[in-house]
User: Fold Lipoprotein from Halpernia humi.
Amino acid sequence: MKKLFLFLLLIMLFSCDKINPHEHTFYYWRTNLSLNQAEKKALSTAKIPLLYTRFFDIDKINGKFQPVAVVTKDSSFVTDKKIVPVVFIKNEVLYDVTPDEINFLAKSIDNLITRKSKELQLQITDEIQIDCDWTAGTNEEYFDFLKVLKDISHKNITCTLRLHQVKDRSLIGEPPVDKVYLMCYVTSSPLENSTKNSILDVPTLKNYLVRLNKYPIKMDVALPIYSWGIVTNHLGKHKLINALSLSDLENNINFKKISKDNFVVLKDGFYYGIYLSKGFNVKIETVSQQDLNETLDFINEKLTFYNIIYYQLDSRFIKNYKL
Assistant:
């Protein structure tokens, strides 16, 4: 009996070692594909042989579907990872689209992915990931699009899953895919007046994901490792500066630090791609290692088998975390 107990204990320990820690890789979300040494090192240590790479966005301009910010590449982008093409589609694009438009959109996306992967000499996988903040007003059209894209491309179609899409599953349905990628970030809008961290507020995330273990589709988990700046003007209106960090403003003589993560603009001018007037406030939001760890502890209570995709692969951010 004692030998049997020890044998079962060893099996349990071995099984736990196989499950945790979860392997990871990254999203790549810059328009021009390039890698510096820090990014190459981080990517080489990731055991998942994939890099989830944004290829382009889809918008509707003058009533016509248009690819926006199509990916380019320079000579520094060298990796042995296979590329998973990711396409972002604005939710507004899907309102009242016809079956013919859905077919056209699916064919156009598949053709452009094929053309760009050949042009840039990228080794892509047999997966296409679609990123869309679909709602109850667009779910039927979006789900139809996913089915048509699968039929046309003959590839595995996956999609992102936002927090509200988990919480409101009974209202907006489940996408017809074999796998989803849970986005554990943007827990609120950065353009609202709030004292919460809009990238990741752990209590808010937990509230959205109470029934995560009931979600019927296999999933991986996307975690945030980035920061941004929220600009507030004299009228209380907000704008967002992506990828802005505390060090950017602490090292800029035209900004004065007034609290832990708040700065005031001292001189009118263009900064980080946007015109800022003297007196504007800039709040830096980032994600702490503690919040990442607490999020993972919570996810582990709900899910057993999953991989982690960190958003995003950028040397400005990866240095701040133990991945």
Observations:
- DSSP finds ten helices and 18 strands in the chain.
- Residues 2 and 149 are 57 Å apart (CA to CA).
- The chain has two domains: 22-225+286-318, 227-285.
- Residues 4-19 have pLDDT under 50 and may be disordered.
